[in-house]
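TEACHING EXERCISE
Course module: macromolecular assemblies
Task: Read the component lines below, then compare them to the predicted structure of the full complex.
Student: A.B.
Group: 4
Components provided:
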Amino acid sequence: MAKVTYDKEITALLVIDPYNDFISVGGKVWDRLKGVAGANQCVPHMLQVLNAARKAKIHVFYALHHRYRPGDYETWKYIAPTQKAAWVHKTFENGTWGGEIRSEFEPQPGDIVALEHWCSSGFANTDLDLQLKKHGIHKLIVIGLIAHTCVEATVRFAAELGYEVTMVKDATASYSDEEMHAALDINIPNYASAIVTTKEVVDSIASLCMSDQ
Amino acid sequence: MAKVTYDKEITALLVIDPYNDFISVGGKVWDRLKGVAGANQCVPHMLQVLNAARKAKIHVFYALHHRYRPGDYETWKYIAPTQKAAWVHKTFENGTWGGEIRSEFEPQPGDIVALEHWCSSGFANTDLDLQLKKHGIHKLIVIGLIAHTCVEATVRFAAELGYEVTMVKDATASYSDEEMHAALDINIPNYASAIVTTKEVVDSIASLCMSDQ
Amino acid sequence: MAKVTYDKEITALLVIDPYNDFISVGGKVWDRLKGVAGANQCVPHMLQVLNAARKAKIHVFYALHHRYRPGDYETWKYIAPTQKAAWVHKTFENGTWGGEIRSEFEPQPGDIVALEHWCSSGFANTDLDLQLKKHGIHKLIVIGLIAHTCVEATVRFAAELGYEVTMVKDATASYSDEEMHAALDINIPNYASAIVTTKEVVDSIASLCMSDQ
Amino acid sequence: MAKVTYDKEITALLVIDPYNDFISVGGKVWDRLKGVAGANQCVPHMLQVLNAARKAKIHVFYALHHRYRPGDYETWKYIAPTQKAAWVHKTFENGTWGGEIRSEFEPQPGDIVALEHWCSSGFANTDLDLQLKKHGIHKLIVIGLIAHTCVEATVRFAAELGYEVTMVKDATASYSDEEMHAALDINIPNYASAIVTTKEVVDSIASLCMSDQ
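Instructor-supplied answer key:
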């Protein structure tokens, strides 16, 4: 079992896109995710990690995808396929339930919610890097959705920008096992220093609480 | 008189911080700005440039300073003097009149409002560069406030990131002539390809309309 | 067959890591790449695309991985797995044959060689984005190595930064078909607007030459 | 007298452009700088701060302007005035004495020399931010040239990116007192947390050595 340890002063939990559209029954994308997410208990695991982090007073950051608003893309000359899809499906539509964070994952006072991003990486064209620096953070524990798009993009950017990343492999999901494999077994191992289970990271975080006493 | 010409396809107007707190009577910073802004007719000039751009169908972008919200700075380990000042004075407080854009400058459908920035540059930690690229923009006409802080910072970043800048020297203001001089005569000439009057830029933009006919 | 067309004024070819260590017999990584690269004729295809671009006067840019130099990593507090590997293997060692560009791919006068990058993306911490903007480029045709690391990273960053990407799927290689599949079939389709064969892109580029006449 | 204290673990000295062209007799720009630089003893002060930092084992970083090479600008569609000037004057020409670092300021093993930048900010389109993060740095002590261009730009970017800055006001120079005033009294106070003399910062750094014993 991987043994990971964290220094609370420089470590943060990064929660990626815990929107109803992704992780709640009735969400626009849930039906495509629920196979993998049900099998690995993604949502309960995400909650366990979040609660463990809060209890240990590890700083919590949110990286959120742009919420669809009318007029977002009409004037663009250049658009990536994933942005076209967001336009067609109006994913995370602003002002709708699907574009709200699932209630158990609501940001709490003191959490940092980064500016919404336009593609897949929580770092691109946002203040996430700035906010992490303002809080002295160098290490990230990453949970959330979707493994091979926003999560992998954010992990890749984190490594490119100098952060040390722990990926929690059963607190994420994709549409299929093949996509999970591409993200978790093929690509992310090049960029994340540790790829662990929820149990492993929760145990490690819990030990921080004890050392406080 | 400087002669400047623009290709509509690759040129945008960038409006910086037209908040009530800056340019409306009763705004938190207006009393410190009104000496310079009154003398050079900053606000009417800004409006003339904006209206000329709209008429010529030049794309309009907004670069806006972060609106103060409670909890913004309490957890930061590192903070710059200008950010401390924003914290103390609650400049552009979110949800208040001071944090609203002055009515004549309200964004119109099709305008692009970039994500709010945390310090002085409209480019830093925002999607301004992305949005400009998505619209194929390479040249910026810059108006707004404050000449030696947000305006100069945004012009400097624009040049660093590869944009060609026109600065409209009587559609901006600072607290004093000395600060205007530092921005407009000492620093910005190194980064902006043209520094023009409102009349010059409005004439140039108006000629674009005629060439459309 | 995919039909792709390009406007020469805003399109560039981006060549990723054509180092001897990757694509020449005797290179440090060639033995791991030659299975896939031999099967899909990666190197001859890369050369066909490069020559077609040169003939059509499409601007050529190079995105290059950091060449190993002693002292690079000893003082780092945080390091990603892919950087640890570069340290151990001294890949693209500066001053050695392995760290030279394979001779047929040598940059020519007028080509732009971006600053070397430290991880996988040709955009991260380099002047690639600036150089593309300085040349008015909005569309990239991407060839080179390795499909699931530097190529995928650069394509992802290109999309995040606002570029429109064409990926040439038989002018790249990975260690295994599974990694090629992860990059070309699972991830890159979300970020590249077109994924084409060498024949398709060369035909399209060749038609630009004819339209010049 | 300002009292500044530093934690060695998170503090670095940033030396900006100590090229012969700037600070050596016979350098291309020296004649324009020597009035101010002579009056405030800029070069001896820079050396005192550098030596104090080395003695205290404070990490030393270099932010260097692009060294002129033939072909740099010929293909650019957009160019800023400061870049036009660099093109005309071939400042810091690569391979010449003027483009070498003045001998007393030569980087030592363990120092970090960031990639060369193209405009004024040591952060723009370089790996400076990455290298600072890889070393866990959050605070910068800044010395070097020229106060109102590269130094001010780098200080502004440092603040925008989340660093805490100390500016050493008599270890920098400009062409005139007016430009020094614009940089040191008007603009940098908004972005640097402390603006100190060489004596103040050297005393503070020296106290770090004592606390090691």
